[in-house]
Amino acid sequence: MRTAEEKFYRARITTRDEFSPGLWKFHLDPGGEFQFVAGQFATLGVQTSQKLIERAYSIVSSPYERELELFVELVPAGELTPLLHALPVGAYMSLRKLAKGRFTLDLKSGHKNHLLLSTVTGVAPYISYIRTLYKDWSDNRPPADIHLFLLNAASRSWEFGYHEELEQLATKVPWLTYIPTVSRSHEDTKWCGETGRVEDLIRKYTDEWNLTGSDTTGYLCGHPQMIELGKGILLRRGFAKESLKEEVYWIPPKTLRR
Ligand SMILES: Cc1cc2nc3c(=O)[nH]c(=O)nc-3n(C[C@H](O)[C@H](O)[C@H](O)COP(=O)(O)OP(=O)(O)OC[C@H]3O[C@@H](n4cnc5c(N)ncnc54)[C@H](O)[C@@H]3O)c2cc1C
Predict the structure, then answer these.
(1) 4-96 falls under which CATH superfamily?
(2) Sheet of strand 41-47: strand arrangement
(3) Residues enclosing ligand 1, CB less than 6 A?
(4) Centroid of ligand 1 to alpha carbon of 226 (angstroms)
């Protein structure tokens, strides 16, 4: 059996930015070499007097960055997030040395188009794809002939987390189209952009962008209901099951399931 030292790093928080109550991003010095592919997740943990509590978190940063960046939503009644949320800059947490996950960019199918759908923190793996592609593109190692179409939702615009970065990149590079949408526009009256949930907008934008099952891979990340509904819409639009990738962040309690 492997020892704790072989399995875990002690990762240190180097920055912390809470930009909306209960939504924050932070950087971690992993405490050793941490290899991953854009789209994978890290397993973070906090040791209590009884046990080590661990959860999965999609990595926001690109493998080209030295530190790991994470984007987390506080679940007030949750086991881990209240403990993570209380950690200041300089505090340590456990980090499994192995990154995991298959929610990586599909470069095998030959599809030119990649439709990225997300709710709030579900944008995390897409930021990692985009930063990685951007670094390659800026270094004159252009990515394969692909185009990313990102449809990202939050209840209110101050919950986006990466809005400015995405907006700037989308004006700079020819391979990214970005549409942010706000679902509670009545609570965000200054918002002038798109409104509605992701699942309300999939038909409109797949039509507008001319995305079909034969040339597009669909990705769905974050809220389980958006993923379930979104998948149904894309399947009915002719996407093959094998062309859909999903990262479900949590399983709703049974009473809330439809
Ligand atoms: C592959 C993967 C990647 C993930 N990446 C991220 C990420 O980048 N950022 C992030 O914030 N979370 C992410 N998650 C979710 C994360 O792993 C935890 O489940 C979440 O942070 C809640 O942990 P907790 O211990 O506080 O709550 P728990 O004790 O695990 O959950 C308590 C209850 O809250 C429900 N619940 C859990 N999360 C939410 C939520 N966000 N909203 C509403 N109800 C919820 C659960 O179903 C449960 O009923 C990811 C999950 C997976 C599987």
Answers:
(1) Translation factors (2.40.30.10)
(2) 52-58, 41-47, 92-96, 8-20, 23-29, 68-73
(3) 41, 55-58, 71-73, 75, 77-81, 101, 121, 124, 247, 249-253
(4) 15
Q: Rounded to the nearest whole angstrom, what is the distance from the C-alpha of residue 54 to the centroid of ligand 1?
A: 11
Ligand 1 atom at minimal distance to the Cα of residue 101: 1
Cβ-based neighbours of 213, under 8 Å, separated by 6 or more: 234, 237, 238, 239, 240, 243
pTM attached to this predicted model: 0.96
* Percentage of residues of the chain with pLDDT beyond 70: 98
**Which pLDDT tens digit goes with each residue over 8-39?**
999 999 999 998 999 999 999 999 999 999 99
Percent composition of the chain: helix, strand, coil (DSSP 3-state, to 5): 30, 30, 40
CA 230 to chain centre: 16
Domain 113-256 class? Answer: alpha beta
The structural domains of the chain, with segments of one domain joined by +, span 4-96, 113-256
Q: What is the pLDDT of residue 3?
A: 82
Residue % of the chain over a pLDDT of 90: 91
